[in-house]
Amino acid sequence: MSSASPQPIKIACDRQLSPTVWVGAILDKARSTRGRDIEPQLVGASLAERYPGFKIPYFAVDDADVQTTPAIRVEKVSYRVAAGDGKQVLPRCAEDARSGLHPVLLVRMKYRERAQWRAENEGIADSISILGIEHFLAQNIVALSTDRHQDNFMTLQSIIEEYNRRLEAVEADMSLKIEVH
To answer: pTM of the entire structure?
Structure first.
């Protein structure tokens, strides 16, 4: 008896909407249908597409929670991803800044103001960039599309293909694959 292969997370992307909306829908659907946060994996795939000469680490969803995922380093920039408002990640961002890196904390847009407030309270707001993951990924989509002279949706598909390849390399749960159309 053969078991059916798991169905991917399927997202219908209205081409009239912005890449920010597409990314938000992907993250929301992964959380609501699979109960998982895939932010580090999606950010890693996006950075791998944007910076092909750099070794961007692979992250399995169950290896570590979003709060403890290691930094993704590109040159002198340290990207850290947080599921919430970054409370557990901010001390690591401070360490990165002290070591000469520029920390970029990526949080969901709904947590950005709270993360900024936390950074101000910890005295590190001036040495850290706090960005909404949705905006960060959308900006990568637009920049890559411009560089490649292609449609934003084609670039999103390319990032999703990279995400799925990376997922296959480290993840047991293939229901976390994404399909956009």
So the answer is: 0.90
